[in-house]
Predict the 3D structure of the following.
Amino acid sequence: MLRRVQRCLVLLGMGAAALAFGPCSPTYADLTKMIQVSGDDVIKTASNGLFDIPTFTNGQWTTKGDSDWDRWVRLPLTTFAQSGWNNFVDSSVPQDPADALRSGALVRK
């Protein structure tokens, strides 16, 4: 029984390696996009959860609605933080040589 499980794990590992190095392999652009989207979601969740200040509207405290705090402080700072994160990731993750060749950046003149 243990041999059968080991064989299954080896075959699964070989199949995953074939996908990782085959035509379905991820590129640096895919990795960059994944990290940027994950970071943007974390920043947006933190902004919505931590910095959404309740306002007193119609006799009740509510965080729903478009207050001046949201419009002038929270949303621009959230966008600024997301842009900073995206620029940091874009400058930190190396670019694919194939993408640079396609764009003409590595072509000698």
Observations:
- The mean pLDDT is 77.
- The CA atoms of residues 20 and 26 lie 7 Å apart.
- DSSP finds four helices and two strands in the chain.
- The two ends are 63 Å apart (CA to CA).
